[in-house]
Amino acid sequence: MIFIYSLEKYELFLLILIVLILAGLFYYLAVKSRKSYTCPECGEKTKVEYMNTTRCGMCGSLLKQDEKE
Ligand SMILES: [Zn+2]
User: Fold this and answer.
1) CA 67 / ligand 1 centre spacing (Å)
2) Of 3, 66, 58, whose CA–CA distance to 35 is shortest?
3) Residue 59, C-beta contacts closer than 8 angstroms, at least 6 positions apart
4) Residue 31 C-alpha to ligand 1 middle, in angstroms?
5) CA distances (Å), origin 26, targets 9, 12, 13, 16, 36
6) CA of 68 to the centre of ligand 1 (A)
7) Which of the chain's ends, N or C, has fewer CB atoms near its CB within 10 Å?
8) Against a cut of 0.70, is the pTM above it?
9) pLDDT in tens, 3-42
10) Do residues 59 and 42 lie in contact, with contact meaning Cβ atoms separated by under 8 Å?
């Protein structure tokens, strides 16, 4: 009885650990897929998800990706 109880506790801990790891992984992937662009014309910074190129919302010129992010 005590063994079964401790096993369930262990499995619950393992389940929580797996959920935490998956949550961290998804958060990491979400942050990685998010790109930051700075407009070369007006300096406006734009965060873009799942896009490679976009245009500035302020002046309409093509944006380049920030190298530090
Ligand atoms: Zn601009």
Assistant:
1) 18
2) 66
3) 39, 41, 42, 44
4) 23
5) 26, 21, 20, 15, 19
6) 19
7) N
8) no
9) 666 667 788 899 999 999 999 999 998 887 777 777 888 8
10) yes
